[in-house]
Amino acid sequence: MSTLRIYNSFSRKKQIFYPITPGKVSLYVCGITAYDYCHLGHARLMIVFDIVQRWLRINNYDVTYVRNITDIDDKIIACAKKNNESIKTLTSRFIKAAQEDSLLLHIQPPDYQPCATNYIPQILKMIEKLIFNGLAYQNNNGKINGDVNYSVRNFLNYGKLSGRLISSNFNKINEKNNFKKDPLDFALWKVSKNNDPYEIRWNSKWGAGRPGWHIECSAMSCYLLGSHFDIHGGGQDLKFPHHENEIAQSEGAYKHKFVNYWMHSGFVKINNKKMSKSFGNFCTIRDLLKKYNPEVIRFFILRSHYRSTINYSEIYLNYAKKSLIRLYLAIKDIPKINYKKIIDLNEPHAKRFIIAMNDDFNTPVAISILFDLANIINKNKSIKMAKQLRGLGNWLGLLEYSSDEFLKNNIYTERKKNVNYSENDIKLKIYFRSEARKRKNFLEADKIRQELVNNGIILEDMPNGKTEWRRI
Fold it and tell me: How far is the CA of 280 from the CAs of 93, 283, 293, 404, in angstroms?
């Protein structure tokens, strides 16, 4: 195989991937905060790093993949209070929902899905290390208990991931917060307030309380993967401050490099504004699955490079559906198979596919190669190429249904008001399409084909140049 290169957000360039331990890869990804149903932005993050771990395994790496779950933070507490339910009841419901959504989207489960509340001892141990190393402090303002905060200015080169280096403007003490010596500092341990429920109070030498958000990921990743591991991933919005703070905590505690490669997926936007629960402009995975096959959603996400911004629109999802229909029509005579046994790695399309994926997981180019294969299959009905198409698609978590199942459930839903085309009408449409292709007006030709598909008529271009049709 060609050499795998990954865009490292830290160095801001593509780098050849060298694992710390030859043949093994440690991967940590920041997952969901369990207080609501997952939206399309979460789907993108999970699908992107599902592709990453799949491709690493295809490259014969022994992968340990960890994707955490935040099950305690301010949003969760506020939501539980609003719903008048326990935090455990709330988080359990949405963790289960997220796992159900992931399964439908063909997302393979990580090796570990740690919840923060199960790692309190590891969190407390890391906080102790930071205090001992002079990077954290408890400011109790004369009281017995008090928050523990990270002293940002005491960590050399804070901001090196995001490029937001400390400036001389941050000199004034935040007088409104008695628990911070500096406005840059952030909480490692939050002492419980009188009205906090007992289920979010854990004992510590600094007083009963709960962990801050940032320390959770540092403690879990270092415990499960070691204090120095290969790849850390997450959404673009986590680069600062979350991942910046993870570096400060982990390197501050263990006094060596934390992560070799940082990967960040791009935003999903609606009307050029980031999709977010806080903005109220999100669509849940569950709502989308009521309208679209899971592979359509997966295909829509993979048609864009993982670092790019996606603009959500039902127009684009409908286009993704039509594109998938084209691929399934090309392999309609090929049964579901074990792709590992049938992909010819020396075949030119497979070679190009591998080069694309090894170039920072370039799924748009990889998918374009699938359509090149489909075009060949439509012309010469090559069984070998059809097997290549299904096998390479499976590498991306696509084309995993039988063709009959997918086409039956999706072509019919594509139809608008049925037009009862006569045989002569169909032949006339085929003639117009043929003339459009001769003029190289492929957009018009595809439009005619799709019009017929929408009304239950499938066209098949034969090797002899003729076009046959059938009703479904």
Answer: 21, 9, 24, 38
Looking at per-residue pLDDT, the higher value among 279 and 78 belongs to 78
Comparing CA positions, the residue from 34, 142, 29 lying closest to residue 88 is 34
Q: Which CATH number fits domain 291-408: 1.10.1040.10, 1.10.260.40, 1.20.120.640, 2.60.40.420?
A: 1.20.120.640
Among 185, 239, 32, 25, residue whose Cα is nearest residue 116 = 32
- State the DSSP string of 129-185: HHHHTTSEEE--TTSS---EEE-GGGSTTTTTTTS----TTTTS--TT-TT-SSTT-
Task: Give percent of the chain above pLDDT 70.
Answer: 89
User: DSSP label at 465?
Assistant: S
d(CA 381, CA 359): 31
Token digits for 45? 């993050």
- CATH class of the structural domain 24-268: alpha beta
Q: Is 179:141 a contact under the CB 8 Å cutoff?
A: yes
- Please tell me the pTM assigned to this model: 0.85
Closest residue by Cα to residue 340 from 394, 380, 303, 289 = 394
How are beta strands 273-274 and 268-270 bridged, if at all? antiparallel
Q: What is the CA radius of gyration of the chain?
A: 26
Token representation of residue 57: 């395994």
CB proximity list for 7: less than 8 A, separation 6 or greater: 13, 14, 15, 263, 307, 360
Is the Cβ–Cβ distance between 218 and 246 less than 8 Å?
yes
The larger pLDDT score, comparing residue 450 to residue 256, is at 256
